[in-house]
Write a structure and sequence with these properties.
Layout (H helix, E strand, L loop, with lengths): L4 E5 L5 H11 L1 H7 L5 H4 L2 H10 L1 E7 L2 E10 L5 E8 L8 H17 L3 E7 L3 H9 L3 E7 L5 E8 L8
Parallel strand pairs: 4-5
Antiparallel strand pairs: 1-2, 2-3, 3-4, 5-7, 6-7
Length: about 160
């Protein structure tokens, strides 16, 4: 009998596993853009710990192993910024990313009062863009990442989070 993946609020003890998982998962994105200085790859462990203390952070677990994570926070305009969604490469394509998004959206709306959700995806990140559109996000603009990567900005209303599947 196999174990199932569970979604839960991240704890301080998850920081190192999130940090390592993030580094592993964002290698593909870095290669896609020829830029290994993208934010998730240069983030420090201390910075991950700070996000755990202040942001809404969820993890996907397979037993004791963290196999996915996502973070969200409320921005100055009241939107919930969702970022650094990642799932271990061996488990991608099984709905874990959508489950993590759903958990973050629910917490950000119910506990922090978010009225809409916003995320950024690299313009060449076809798989990520497909997931976000499938769960209700729509393109609202573009931006330039601090690392120089052109980004697509996507949003959806907080009332739509229940439809994320």
């Amino acid at each position: 009998m196999g174990m199932s993946v569970t979604i839960s609020v991240a704890t301080e003890q998850d920081a190192e596993q999130i940090f390592r998982l993030q580094y592993l998962c964002f290698q593909r994105e870095a290669a896609l853009y020829g830029n290994y200085r993208i934010a998730p790859l240069v983030q420090s462990l201390d910075s991950v710990r700070e996000e755990l203390a202040t942001d809404c952070v969820f993890v996907a677990r397979l037993g004791d192993e963290v196999v996915g994570s996502v973070r969200g926070s409320i921005t100055e305009d009241g939107a919930a910024a969702i970022g650094k969604l990642c799932v271990h490469p061996r488990l991608q394509g099984h709905g874990i990313g959508a489950r993590l998004l759903r958990a973050a959206e629910a917490a950000l709306a119910e506990e922090r009062g978010a009225k809409r959700f916003r995320l950024h995806a690299g313009h060449r990140s076809e798989g990520n863009l497909r997931l976000y559109r499938r769960v209700g996000y729509e393109t609202v603009g573009t931006s330039q990442g601090t690392d120089g990567v052109p980004m697509i900005v996507l949003e959806k209303a907080a009332g739509a989070y229940a439809a994320t599947a």
